[in-house]
Structure formats: structure tokens, C-alpha cells
Design a protein that fits this description.
homodimer; alpha+beta; 20 helices; 28 strands; about 35% helix; 6-stranded mixed beta sheet
């Protein structure tokens, strides 16, 4: 079937289920950032393969909502499908609610698979459409799933233990903390649907989803019990033994019966994290009281303990060795010819794979040469990717998954002689990286304010980057993790033990892109702490040289130059014991003081 | 009567009115920042004269809530009154709601004069006490007013026109804009209780309240009519003629009847700005629909037009002349002896009064020598004020009211040889002033983020100031004006035509205080604007030298030094034509490039 035929078949199913429109999000039942293949319903139906996009099918018209990154790709991939591209953020583009209201009459209804929409998103539909007298019907099964012949089976990688030697805290201790939080709010149960929350709480990992080593499972915690609902084919004797006495293991689909029972129990109050829990959970719990709030796990998980902090440092030493090998290799390989954006990123992946404990990349590598470096979410494609030439800038944003920690690093290097504009912009991005990392900030400071230091040197010349400065990072979990961030949004104040990326950038469309990124821990700035006031600063864990051929030290303050030289000294000190003579000598040169 | 006797008399009245506690805020019916004498009920009752403080009288106990500025003064002034000092912000201090709940039983009630509590504050009482089953009774008359023998009469200064030559916009044009905003929201009437809103809308001013040249009045705007409710003794033929055809003038108390009538009219929807409208207005409008939102006047008023911008510039030239005279005078007067914090601020007021059009100070001058400079809201008192000696730092924060504009300036000067610490801190405060003013920022930036530039140089050494960086300013109106600000609170993005103070500081308790303040307009930064993106920067209007004996240029960047030198050049250029030879030559030296 082509997309047009699929949409037509879906409309027949819609009639059968008595809904006048159907919503097909890009989501799985756990609101995961990266979707397993078997949950890519939207891509299968529409033919649009971008990472962000939601479809609504009406009886006559249909639309796909996506953002500016995908306007070009969307218009190409949707050709002939009968699905209109809805360019989000452009004037005149209706919201999904507005569009549904324009297609449906009062009394008609929108169908939604309750298991792939979050409680928050469902509430927005309900509130938005109520005003038009349009109902939202939440039900399973998924109508697109019904049509999808050859839908891939779920990946059934084994569930394994993430040992305390890596994560630094027992399941027992974590459960005690979660139960204490539940007690404080009067919740008698907590349904945990976010896969990173499940993984953190029970110290389990798997390989169900690319890049993020989570286990597809739900957990229900009560004051006495903890139950993990997971496909039994993922469970072997080892993990059964490890979880014994901590959590009961049940089948993935057994949760629905158990939730119904839970709802019928007396004085039940269920803690639900609305942003990552699907609507079906709440519908199944009908009759129970709810405590809607972010899971207590979110804040607990974001504060790394001493074992994790050392683990991240170790992971970054291995990652740094891979980066040094890669950057040295690139220096020769580009002039030698034959390299492309993809061969380069493949080579880096190979260097990473040589590192002890390397498990996977932590996201799809962004390998952007020259003009492609200016595309913030660029993804090189085999057929069209650029050849690397000994001129212009090259940007590579990549990361690895190690049981000790997750990495995420961006370096931008000059493949030939950079021009003055490139040097000025690179230097100002670097000044942002340094200021954001170096300047102490008092307890209570939010990332929304702190990230201004990363923008200052660029704003000074009327330049800015259209993305946040940084995000939290999980330990051998999602490379993007909340609740804190360095973005212009409301997030909790930064606290000791948070790890964030610091990644300002500068992009000139059609010309070049620059980004410098490291991960850094929020640490106490003992020098400035007083009895009354706690000061923090960032301690970077990422270790890799920054291309000093792109640096104009005349633009920098003495403190900034001092920071760069001392950072480079540390890079050499920490990585050189792991390098052979040739790489050591290359790194010595690359980290020379300016 | 002393405070104890007054409280006892109040309790008798409370019994008569069947309330078990009574709330006495520091407020007038218009939620003014500076209270007219006749509305200082709280000060009369309690004996506490600080600017911030609220009293609740129970049948046995009584409390006064104030903030850290007034803990010492409060504990002294409340002695013997039977009123407990409630130290806000200290652990263990109950909120007013918690305290009332601890004093009253279920079913009992708290009495409040409906005319001196905002709709917002009343809502907080209602919501907070409902949980305890305690009722809030809103009524007039004011029980403290009933007791207050010799309560001053309201000041009855004439209401005068603020001509279009100063304010740049006719009443007709302003009414059209307000009515357009009303139409957009479906409001059929707008009750305007904020005195700055009244003054701006009808281009009227008076001298009812110290520092802020507002008229005590309400305005009601409907699609067809505008009515100002004001004491007839303030109205003369001139203003009657000016307002003819624009607004009807009625007696101040006629509003209550008119609001009752308005509520009875069909399809009435009244726009109420909850933050500055008293509860009595809403109670009197019972039966009407409401549109609760900030008055459209707030945002309109905050964007100054070209006439106002030039007016502010002119007012600041006059103000700058007074500052130059003062600073030169201070240089000789201090070593000559006999000067105090008060004689100095009086002398500055005299210099200001010599300026054309000077009407009043815009707030009570902060004149703080040495350790007193570290008290952020210091107010020198005749008996205890410090003598100025030719050593240490002296901080003076003051402003004037001119029909063309309102000024607010702080300068800190060394009266003798400053030490290294003072120089470093002064330089870093100055770097903050400069960065916050100089660095371009894109449209959409909020003050909450922008003010980070003012803090950066201080944070770099682990120092911070416990106040916002800046506030909006009215034109010949309140020296503090919303909605925008440079503070760590949520306010709308800065837009062209906003005027704000930029006033970072540094305070060392018991030693010295430093603050540098200027007012500056948000202007387009043409150099960096593109077709897609608007950039702003600040253009300072305050003109007075900054003490360069306190500046260590080695700490500053070249751009910062360049800014200071060019600012000083401008100060000399704009002020010198208005100075005699001696002052000109003094200013030449004071503004010499570093």
C-alpha cells in the first residue's frame, strides 16, 4: 500500500469505530524520545520519516504537523499521500485543535489511541475541543496498528542489571526515597511509565531502543510492593535473581488488570507523572484518586552521586581517547581524500568502539561539513552527504553510551586555513562556553538565567543561536534528561550533582556552522561559599582538544585565556597516559597553551 | 491614646462589628506605593512608621508583618504596643493566613476594609482561610479610621493638565487605544483605580501624594463615555475646560452609585486590574461579568513616545547640572567639615530646585555614608545621621520630578583615598552597569535574563547584590513603574520605548556600599538589526560623572573602557553649555578619559 491507500484504509476503520478524525502521534506508550521501530506508526502511515511529526486524518483532509527542521523533507516525503504539510511556527498554520475544529462538526469525535498520548497532551485536546463541542474518544487498539502488515516485532533484548558499582545506589535505597516522597503527598501508589525512570529505579537496562539503553516496562510502586511489567522473553534467571526481594516481575500486559484492581482498592491515591504517562493508564485507574506531579524520580535521578560522578569522568576519558584518535586521523585523512561526512562519523564510531565498555552511540551523530554544519539537526544521508575537503569548517556532534556514563561532545575544526569571520565567531562561541562554565553562580540560579553567560560574547556582535545552551544527561540512559536545563524555559534551579551540556553555537546558512560542547557537573565553588551562601560552578568532564587555530586570543579576557590553557593542560594530563607515542605527541601540540 | 489603648479600642469596635480579627494593611484605595498621610492607618494604630508593614489584630494577640529592612526599627517602635513583630522571611514566622488560623476558630471571621485591599490580596485571604473554615468579611467604614481622632484631611492640591507638549499624546488618542483593547476582550467598561493609570489616561496630574504627582481619583471608561471621580475641591475651571468633551467630572464618592448602576445594566463586562483595584469596587459591581487582567494602560504607558523620550533627555540634562553642582560642592564641603548625610541630601535638593520646571523629588533620597551606604533602603534621620568625613565611600540615590520626565540616579564617590577592595568592587559594579547597558539583546529578551549581564562581573568573584537590577519609570509619575523590569521575576520582554533604571550594587555590612544607577531607554540597535531579527540596546539618559578614582581599568575590557570614556565625553558635551566656567572646568576633569 502507498500512503494514499493506507489513509483510505484507515478512514474505513475510522467509520467502523465511529470517529470522524484520527490522531496519529509520533510516540510509544512511554513517551520515549527515540522510538522503537514497532511504534513508528506515523512514519509507516504517512511516509514521512523525520523525528518530529504528528498526523491527524479527517474524512476528507489530512495534515502532518512538523517544525522548521523538516519543512523541506516533509514536502518531499508527503508528495502524493494526500496529507497536507502543516508548517508549525509559520503564520496562518492552524494548530491541531483548530484544524480538527475546522473539519468536524459539533457532536462529532476525534479518535486517539489512549496508549500513545500523554495525560498532558490528552488534556490539551480535551480542553481545546470541548469549546467546539467535539468529543475525544480514547481507545485501543491502535487503528494504524490494525492496518500495519509486517509491523516489526518489539526488540527483545535481555533486561540486565546496572550494578551498584556503576550506579552507586541500591534499589532498596531508591525505593525508600520514592516511598518517602509518596508518603509526603499522600499517594498510596506510583505508576511509573517513563522508561528512564523505570531503569533508574530498579537499576535495570536493556537495548530495546537505539541510543538509550532502557527496558520497555512499567513499574508500580506501593508502600509495600514494587512490580515491574515487562515482556517475559526479556527476563532471564540472572535478572530474576537480582530483583528478588526488591520487585516482582510480571508480564507487560498484566498491568491493565492490576491497575483495575488497584483502582478498586480502598483509599487509593495514585501518583501520575502526566508528561510521560499515557492516557490509558489513567483511564484504566478510573475511580482512584490521583496525585498529578512530576515523578520524584526525575529530581532524584538528576543528582548524581559520587560513584556516578567518577563513572562519568572515566567514561569521558575513554571517549576523549576516541576523540583524540579521530581528530588526529582527520588531519591526515581529509587531505588524502575520499572521506565524506559519513565515512568520518563511521570512523569516529569505530574509535569509540575500541574503548572499554562501549555499548552504543548515545544519539545519531551530526557530522556536518561547511554549509551542512549550519543545519542544527543535520543528519548526513549516504547518497547526498558532503565530501570533506582540506578547506572550510567541519562540525561533529556525537556521544557514546558506557555503563559508567553517557557522553555528548561537539568539536568544530578547521580543515584548512579559516577566514577572519570564522575565527571571530569560533572565538566568541568559545568565550560563551568558557564563561558559562567558569563564572560562579549562587544557589537558586536557574539555567534560564545562567545560560545568558554563554550568549554574551555573541550578543555583543548581534549574533545568537536558535537553540538552548544545554540539557541534562542521564547515566547510561537518555542523553537528554530533565528536569534542569540551560534553556530559555522555566526549569528548577541548578543543584550540586547535576550534569549538563554546555553547547553554544553559531550558524551561517549556506556557509558554516560552529558549536563547542562539553558536559559539566554543577559543583560547589568552595572558594566563594560562605556560611550564608552557597556558590556553584561547572566542572567539565569532557576531555578533547579545542581547535586553537580558530581562536583569536585578542578577543578574550585574561581569565578566559587562562581557563582554556588550564583546560588543555588537564586534557593532556588525563588522556596522555592512555595514548601511544604518536597520539601523545599530537595531543601535546593540540593542547599547547595560547 | 498610645498603641496599646488604640488596639484595645479597636477590639471593642471589632466586637461591635462581629469580627474576631481585623486586618490593617499599609494601603490606600488605589494601592499607591507612597501613601497620603490620611491613609497611614497602620502607622497611626501601631506606632510603626516603616514603609512596609501589615497588622492583624486578634482578640488576644496582634502581629505586624514586615521584612528584613525593618526588623530593628519594628522591634523598637512596637515596644509596649502589645503587637508582636513578625519577621517575614525568617524560618518559623507564620504567614498572616497561618496566624489568623491559629487565633480564630472555625466559623469565626476576619474583618477587612474592602477599600484598602486589592482584589488579588483579598483572593489570597479568601483562598487561604477557606481551608480553615474562617470567613473574611469585607466592609467599610474602616474601623481604624473610626477611632482616628485628628486624622489628617486629604491633600487637596488642584488637578492640572499635563499638556501634550510634554506627554506627546492626546486624551482622545489614548481613549481610542483603551477602547480598542476593551473591544478585543469583550469588556464593556473598564474601572481604573491605579492613580498612575488615571493620570496617564486623562493627562492630569496633582500633588496629593509626596514624590508622585498623581490625582486621587477613579476613572470609568465605557465605549461611549469616560468619567473621572475626584474631589470637587480639586477641580477648577481650567481643568474642567481641558477635559470637556473627553471626560465627565463627578465627585469622588459618586463612583459607588454609578458602579451599582453599571452592574445592573445589561451585558456588562467590566475590565478590572486586580493588582491595583480595591475589593470594594468588585463587591459594588456584584452581578456584572468581569474581565480580570492588567489594565491595557500599563503596557501603553510603558512605551514612551518621541516627545516623552526627548522630555526625559531634557529633564536629565537639568538633573545632571544639579548633580555636577552637588558633586563639585561635596568635594570642598566635606573636608571643610560640618556636613552630614542630611545636610548633603538637602544641598542636592536645593541644587535640583534651581533647575527649570523642577516640581518635587521623585522619592526620599538615600544619602548613606560609609557603613550606612551598605543599608540598601537607608533613610538618614536627623538625630542619628552620620557626619561626612574626608575618608570612605559615600552613596547618594536620588531623583527629581519634572513635567518632562522623572529622574533617578545613584552615584558613589570616594571622600578620601579608597582602598583596593573598594576599587575592585566599584569597578565590578561599573562593569555590570556598562555590560547591562552596552550589550545588544534580541527582541523577546526579558529583563529577568538581560539583568544577568549586570551581575556577571560580581558573580565572577562570588559577590552578588540582594536586589533587582532595575525598574521601569513613569513620565512625571511614579519612579517605579511596571510592567517590565530588570529583576528575577517574570515580566514581559523589553520593547523599544521602555525606560528602566540600571543599578547594580555591592554592599559590605558595617563597611561601605556601592551603587551606580542610570536610567536608560530601550532603543533599536540599528547596526545589528536585520530583516528577520530586531536587536535592542540601552541608551542612557542620566548624565553625571562616575568617580574614576574608584576605577581599576585593568579589570575592564577594552569595550567597557571605551563605553565609559564615550559616556563621559557625552556627559561633558551635553552639560557643559549649561555650566559656568568653574563647573565646566571641574566637569572636564571629572570626565577625563581613563
Amino acid at each position: 500500500m502507498n500512503a494514499r491507500e493506507k489513509v483510505s484504509a484507515l478512514r474505513k476503520l475510522m467509520k467502523k469505530h465511529k470517529v470522524d478524525a484520527y490522531y496519529v502521534p509520533s510516540a510509544d506508550p512511554h513517551m520515549s524520545e527515540y522510538l522503537p521501530e514497532c511504534w513508528k506508526h506515523r512514519a509507516w502511515l504517512s511516509g514521512f520519516t523525520g523525528s518530529a511529526g504528528e498526523v491527524v486524518i479527517g474524512m476528507k483532509k489530512a495534515g502532518l504537523w512538523t517544525d522548521g527542521r523538516y519543512f523541506l523533507q516533509g514536502s518531499m516525503e508527503l508528495k502524493g499521500s494526500g496529507i497536507d504539510l502543516m508548517r508549525m511556527g509559520e503564520p496562518g498554520t492552524p494548530s491541531k485543535v483548530q484544524w480538527v475544529a475546522s473539519q468536524l462538526k459539533k457532536g462529532q469525535s476525534l479518535g486517539v489511541d489512549a496508549s500513545v498520548i500523554s495525560v498532558t497532551a490528552a488534556r490539551e485536546f480535551d480542553a481545546g475541543l470541548a469549546g467546539y463541542g467535539i468529543k475525544v474518544k480514547y481507545f485501543t487498539p491502535n487503528l494504524v496498528g490494525e492496518l500495519w502488515d509486517g509491523r516489526p516485532d518489539p526488540v527483545l533484548a535481555p533486561m540486565v542489571n546496572h550494578p551498584v558499582t556503576f550506579c552507586g545506589e541500591t534499589v532498596k535505597s531508591k525505593l525508600t526515597k520514592v516511598r518517602a516522597a509518596m508518603k509526603d503527598t499522600g499517594a498510596t501508589a506510583h505508576v511509573i511509565a517513563g522508561l528512564d525512570q523505570v531503569a533508574w529505579l530498579l537499576n535495570v537496562r536493556s537495548r530495546d531502543i537505539a541510543f538509550t539503553p532502557v527496558v520497555t516496562a512499567y513499574v508500580v510502586v506501593t508502600s509495600r510492593a514494587a512490580t515491574i511489567y515487562v515482556d517475559p522473553r526479556k527476563v532471564n534467571k540472572g535478572i530474576t535473581k537480582t530483583l528478588k526481594g526488591k520487585a516482582t516481575i510480571k508480564g507487560y500486559d498484566s498491568i491493565w488488570n492490576d491497575l483495575e484492581k488497584l483502582a478498586k482498592a480502598k483509599k487509593t491515591c495514585v501518583w501520575i507523572d502526566e508528561s510521560c504517562t499515557n492516557r490509558r493508564v489513567v483511564d484504566t485507574l478510573k475511580g482512584a484518586d490521583f496525585h498529578f506531579a512530576p515523578s520524584p524520580i526525575t529530581a532524584l535521578k538528576a543528582v548524581k552521586n559520587a560513584v556516578q560522578i567518577e563513572g562519568f569522568a572515566e567514561a569521558h576519558r575513554r571517549d576523549g581517547v576516541a576523540m583524540v584518535k579521530f581528530l588526529k586521523w582527520l588531519e591526515k585523512a581529509v587531505p588524502a581524500g575520499g572521506q565524506t561526512e559519513i565515512t568520518a562519523s563511521d570512523r569516529l564510531a569505530e574509535f569509540r568502539a575500541e574503548g572499554k565498555g562501549f555499548q552504543d552511540l548515545s544519539f545519531s551523530t551530526i557530522s556536518g561539513y561547511a554549509a551542512n554544519g549550519a543545519i542544527i539537526h543535520y543528519s548526513a544521508v549516504e547518497e547526498s552527504c558532503a565530501k570533506l575537503k582540506p578547506q572550510g569548517l567541519y562540525l561533529i556532534d556525537s556521544g557514546g553510551q558506557y555503563p559508567e556514563g553517557t557522553t555528548d561532545i561537539t568539536r568544530t575544526v578547521a580543515l584548512g586555513q579559516p577566514n577572519r569571520r570564522q575565527i571571530e565567531c569560533f572565538t566568541r562561541v568559545l568565550m560563551g562556553t568558557i564563561d558559562c562554565t567558569m563564572i560562579p553562580f549562587p544557589a537558586g540560579t536557574t539555567g534560564q538565567r545562567q545560560e545568558m553567560f554563554a550568549r554574551r560574547a555573541l550578543w555583543a556582535i548581534g549574533e545568537d543561536y536558535a537553540h538552548g545552551t544545554g540539557h541534562g544527561v542521564g547515566q547510561y540512559l537518555g542523553v537528554h534528561e530533565g528536569p534542569h536545563s540551560l534553556k530559555n524555559i522555566v526549569t528548577p534551579p541548578l543543584v550540586e550533582g547535576n550534569i549538563l551540556s554546555v553547547e553554544p553555537g553559531h550558524y551561517e546558512a549556506g556557509k558554516f556552522g560552529i558549536r563547542i560542547e562539553h558536559l559539566a557537573f554543577v559543583v560547589r565553588d568552595e572558594k566563594h561559599c560562605t556560611a550564608d551562601k552557597t556558590w556553584y560552578t561547572f566542572h567539565p568532564v569532557t576531555l578533547a582538544p579545542i581547535d586553537t587555530s580558530l581562536v583569536d586570543k585578542k578577543l578574550m579576557t585574561g581569565d578566559q585565556i587562562g581557563w582554556l590553557n588550564s583546560y588543555h593542560k588537564r586534557v593532556f594530563k588525563e588522556l596522555s597516559p592512555r595514548l601511544d607515542k604518536a597520539h601523545k605527541s599530537w595531543l601535546k601540540k593540540a593542547t599547547k597553551a595560547i
